[in-house]
Amino acid sequence: MSLQSLSWIFPFLSFISGYYCLHTLYTVPELVTPNVVGKQLPEAVKVLSDYNLNTRLLAIKEDSDLPDYTIVSQTPRQDAKIKAHQSVFLVLTRQPEKPLAPPFIGESAANIQESVRKANIHCKLYWIKSSHPAGHCIAQFPLPKEPLENNFLICYISTGNKKAVLWPDFRGKTLASVKEFLDEHAITPEIQGVPGKKGEPLVTDQRPLPGSIINLHADEKPAIQLHIS
Known about the structure:
Blueprint: H1 9-26, E1 30-32, H2 41-50, E2 54-62, E3 71-75, E4 81-83, E5 87-94, H3 109-119, E6 122-128, E7 137-141, E8 152-158, E9 164-166, H4 175-184, E10 190-192, E11 203-207, E12 213-215, E13 225-228
């Protein structure tokens, strides 16, 4: 058989060789899908990137038992055949949003107990001595509008203190009327200044300042200073 008679086969062989080369160069090899279930999202993204796979978010589920961004399922599943640069679809977890602490400061203990009962909040009341009105909340933890851990709240309730008073403003009042008030509590003030020659002496300044919380225990009388003119 002459070489000329076989010349038709060379174009065919060239086509087959070219096709094989192109197929080898551009065919994407198959991979085995790695397992990322149970991993946190950053770790899962790294694993998939190492396999030249793309990460896609399929859904987010609330789960109070798992940390945020834990992978609970994937598609394709572990060991399934997949090609490089294809996507793996993930389902992540998020913990349910925590309820916020209601603003109870200043509320009565009775109102607090009724409110937490309706809201299904676990609340512990601690009664402490305070100059604030008895039976009212003076502090809470967590603070208002902060997240409640384990749906639990602590409120501090004042027991009251009859000996404590909000110190009045004596300025502009006569010395006689102020001394009458102080005598009721067995307090002797320190008088400063010189009274004028006309009319009764008037209080022009005082210590403690008006609005101070003063404890009037019998054995702890406060030092009161009055300036008159």
